[in-house]
Specification:
Layout lengths: L1 H12 L4 E7 L2 E6 L5 E5 L13 H11 L27 E4 L2 E4 L5 E7 L6 E4 L1 H6 L6 H10 L7
Antiparallel strand pairs: 1-2, 2-3, 4-5, 5-6, 6-7
C-alpha cells in the first residue's frame, strides 16, 4: 500500500508520466517516469475517409503488402510473416519493420524469426528452445509426444 501512495504522489508531480524515447514510423517507444516501465505504443491507423480506426484484419493485410521481406536469415522469395510466440495470435502477425521483427497484435519486438525444424512454421521466439524443443505452434504436440514416450509430465 505504501508503494501505491508513493507512485500516486510521484505521478501527480510528473504528469504527464510517459516520455517518448524513440519515434518510429509504426509507433513510439516510451518510458514511464513514474514506475520506469518501458513499452511501445503502436500508432493507430485512422481511415482517411471515415476517421475510424482500421480493424486488425486490415492492418495485417496492409502489413503483408508493405513488409513482406525479412532479414538476412530469411529464405529469398518467401513472404516472411511469422507467428508471434508472445501473444500466440492464431494469425501470422510478426513483420520485419524498421530492422526489428515486430508483432502488430501485441507490439512485442526484437526477436529473431525462423522456420521451426519440428513443424516448419515461421515463428519468433528463443532460438535454442525452438531448435532443441519446439516452437509456440508445436510445443503442445511435442510435449505430449515426450510424455507418451515416458518422459516426466513436468516438461
Amino acid at each position: 500500500m505504501r508503494q501505491k501512495a508513493f507512485i500516486s504522489a510521484r505521478f501527480t508531480e510528473m504528469t504527464p508520466a510517459a516520455e517518448i524515447t524513440k519515434q518510429n514510423s509504426w509507433g513510439n517507444e516510451y518510458e514511464c517516469l513514474v514506475c520506469g516501465v518501458k513499452d511501445i505504443f503502436l500508432a493507430t491507423i485512422p481511415c482517411h475517409y471515415c476517421a475510424k480506426d482500421i480493424e486488425h484484419e486490415h492492418v495485417l493485410k496492409a502489413c503483408r503488402g508493405k513488409y513482406s521481406d525479412g532479414d538476412g536469415w530469411c529464405e529469398d522469395g518467401n513472404v516472411n510473416v511469422a507467428y508471434c510466440h508472445e501473444c500466440n495470435d492464431d494469425k501470422k502477425s510478426v513483420f520485419y519493420i524498421d530492422g526489428h521483427w515486430s508483432c502488430v497484435t501485441c507490439f512485442d519486438r526484437g526477436w529473431q524469426a525462423v522456420s521451426c525444424p519440428h513443424c516448419d512454421e515461421f515463428v519468433t521466439g528463443d532460438m535454442d528452445t525452438i531448435k532443441y524443443f519446439a516452437c509456440v505452434r508445436c510445443e503442445d504436440a511435442v510435449r505430449a509426444e515426450l510424455v507418451k514416450d515416458g518422459f516426466n509430465k513436468t516438461l
